[in-house]
Write a structure and sequence with these properties.
Keywords: Membrane, Transmembrane, Transmembrane helix
Shape: elongated
Strand content: under 5%
Low-confidence stretches: none
Number of strands: 0
Helix content: over 70%
Order of helices and strands: HHHH
Number of helices: 4
Mean pLDDT: 84
Radius of gyration: 21 Å
Largest sheet: none
């Protein structure tokens, strides 16, 4: 398990640190702000920023590989000759 966690960290250092920052900011808001609406208003942009950051730093090649795997996994339709 420890070996797998080290490999995940090694491959995703930026995302892991962005998640740590998001969690720390969220906990700070939860402890400092008492109003629930204000908490929600301040926490949601943090999560949105984390998601946007994760999408922007993901290499395009990695996203393209997932699309190719999905296309290969779906059954291919054969075209039948059109009759008039």
């Amino acid at each position: 398990m420890e070996k797998k966690l080290k490999e995940i960290y090694k491959n995703n250092k930026l995302i892991v640190w962005a998640a740590v920052v998001a969690v720390v900011l969220t906990l700070g808001i939860l402890l400092k702000i008492k109003d629930e609406v204000t908490r929600f208003t301040l926490i949601m942009p943090i999560f949105a920023g984390f998601i946007l950051f994760s999408i922007l730093i993901t290499p395009d090649e990695e996203l393209e590989d997932e699309d190719r795997e999905e296309k290969e996994a779906s059954p291919k339709k054969t075209k039948s000759p059109k009759s008039r």
